[in-house]
Amino acid sequence: MCLPPSSVAVVLGTRPELVKLAPLIHELGDATRLVHTGQHWDEAMSGRFLRDLDLPRPELLTGVGGRPRAGQIAQSLGQLDAAFAEDRPAAVVVQGDTNATLAGALAANAREIPLVHVEAGLRSFDRAMPEEHNRVMVDHVSDLLCAATGENVANLRAESLAEDRIELTGNTVVEVVRRQLPDGAARAALLAAHGLRPDAYVLATVHRPENTDTAEALGAVLAELDRIARAGTPVLFPMHPRTRAAVERFGLDGLLERLAVTGPVGYGDFLGLACHAALLVSDSGGVQEECTVLGRPLLVVRRSTERPEAVAAGFAALVRPGEELGTLARAWLSDTPERLARLAATPSPYGDGLASARIAALTAALAGPAGRQALPSAA
C-alpha cells in the first residue's frame, strides 16, 4: 500500500467507531489521519479506548459533545470543512451511522474528496431512528460502499446505488473481537474478580434513548433484570453514564439493589465477560455482532434492528422491555448448555476476519490517481 503519510482522514466520534475502525487504522498505518469529532469524548473512557486499541492520538474537534443532533452535525461539519480545506486528504473514511459519520461524509462530499463508507447498507427500516437517516444519507453520497453482508449488499442494490461502488468486505468486528478478547487466564481472573462462574450469569447493558428516556421503559428493563437476579442468576450490569443519570432522575435505584452494578468497563474486559455469559441482554448494535463471534445468546431490547443477520442465525432475538424480555430470558436460561453448544457450532454471519485488509486495499485504490479520476466529479 503506497499512500503518503496522513493522507486518509478517518473521521469518527464515538467509542464504538474507535473499536470497529481500529483494525482498518492499523492496516492503513502511517497513511491514517485520525480525526475525532468529540461526539463522545472524555479522557477517562475515550482515552482508555485509544490506549487499549493501540490507536494514535486524534485531531480533536471542539464544542460538539452535549449538543442536540443538528448542533453536533453542524459544529462537526464546519470544523471538518475548514480542516479539509487547509490540508486536503486523498480520501475520507467514515463508519456506521453516527452524527460524526454524517458530518464526515458531508464534509468530504462538499470538497469532492473520495468517500469510503465502512459498514454500508445496514437498514432497520425504522424511520424513528436518527441513525437510519444518517446511514441512508451517507450511503448515497459515498464513492465506495463497504458492505459487511450479502443482505447489506441487497439493501444497497434495492436503492439503485451503482454496482461498481459496492463491495462485499465482511465486518471488521470479527477481527476486533479475535484480537481484543483476553486469553483464558485473564478471563478467569476477570470472572473471579466479579465473583462469577462461567456460563452461569447474565451480562446486561442498556443505553439507547428508547430504553432510557422514560421511566416506564427503563423501569421495565430493570424490573426484569431484578427478577432474574432474585431467581438466583447473577446479573452483571456495567452502567452507561446516560443510564445512571436516568436511574437517578426517575428514582429507580431500588431496582439495582440485586444487580452487580459497575461503571463502564474497557472493551477487552467487556469481551472477556461476554465470552462466558449464559445470556447477554443489550440494546447495543455492536453487541449484536460481537455475540456471533463469541457464540453467546443475546436478547436485543429494541423495537427494530439494522442487524437482522444475528437474529436469522439464531444468536439473537428482538424483545420489548418488560414481560416479553423476562419470559424469553427465563426460557433461554433454562436450556443454557444446549443453546451454547448449538451457537458454538454456528459460524458468524459477519465474515472471515479479513475485512480490514480488503477495505484498506480498496481505500488505497480509490485514493490513488486512477481512483480519483474515475469519480464522476473528476470527469
UniProtKB/TrEMBL annotation:
Question: Does Isomerase appear among the keywords?
Answer: yes
InterPro entries from the UniProt entry: UDP_GlcNAc_Epimerase_2_dom, WecB-like
* Molecular function as annotated in GO: UDP-N-acetylglucosamine 2-epimerase activity
Q: Which residues form the UDP-N-acetylglucosamine 2-epimerase domain?
A: 32-361
Q: Name one Pfam family in it.
A: Epimerase_2
Q: Which UniProt keywords apply?
A: Isomerase
Its Enzyme Commission number? Answer: 5.1.3.14
Q: Which domain of life is it from?
A: Bacteria
EC main group: isomerase
Into which family does the record put it? Answer: Belongs to the UDP-N-acetylglucosamine 2-epimerase family.
By what name is this protein known?
UDP-N-acetylglucosamine 2-epimerase (Non-hydrolyzing)
